[in-house]
# Entry
Amino acid sequence: PDGEASLQTVHVDNGRGRFILERTVDGRAMRASLEADGGCRFELDGEPVPAADPFLGEREWTAERVTDYRNYYRFLWGQPMNLSEPGLLGGAQVTATTFQEQDVLTLRVQFEPPVGTDLWYFHFEPQTKVLVGYEFYKDEAARRGEYLVFDGTATGAGLSLPARRTWFQAWDDVTLGVDALIGLESGE
# Structure
């Protein structure tokens, strides 16, 4: 909300165990790739650079941070499929409610601390069971959290995912950003 708009490109290739994150910062094209062998490679303006490059360090681009981005994007794009993963606390409840002025079925869940401590609400269209958005809170009473609203559907490679996800701060409804899914491909 207080920062400059930025564009970030993310490539997730789970089949090959590869993740690529690209963005332009201060006029320089930054690229980080995590490879299946566990290696993390960095480029600036299309040229390989060591992880210790000062420009990367000043922007906190480390292998650990890129790994965090990978895990974050896998988790978010994997919703609600992640609900079948280990770490989900029992007692998930489904209620009929509204989300963004739309009637929905809402699933309230929490994960065990190694997965995350946030409280999550997944909102599904009642007839089709399509995920239309979700919310997560670090402190629900204080509305310290975010919510995402989905628009459109992208299909391919046997998947059907939201084509566009718009992020908002829960406490003041300020738009944080937009994720747009450009394409889905199968590694087969």
About this structure: The chain has two helices and twelve strands. The longest strand covers residues 144-156. The radius of gyration is 18 Å. The helical segments are 54-58, 63-77.
